[in-house]
């Protein structure tokens, strides 16, 4: 179980690094908004995954 969560955390961190390094040059306002939404959703997912991992470790 911990390994699955750790893998998800690693994947989500990679996604955040990618999204954080993407340029918005040449994108429409809608495309920028979609990119921002993906970034902030990934942050929320990462927080949730880390919280779940921490609860599993304490048990």
> Considering DSSP H and I runs of 4 or more, what fraction of the residues is helical?
over 70%
Arithmetic mean of pLDDT? 94
Written as H for each helix and E for each strand, in order along the chain, the element string is: HH
* Number of individual domains: 1
> Given the C-alpha coordinates, what overall shape results?
elongated
Short overview:
It is built from 2 helices and no strands. It is mainly alpha-helical and 59 residues long.
Structure report:
The structure is a single chain. The protein has 59 residues and is mainly alpha-helical. It has one domain. It is 85% helix and 0% strand. It has 2 helices and no strands. The protein has helices at residues 2-21, 29-58.
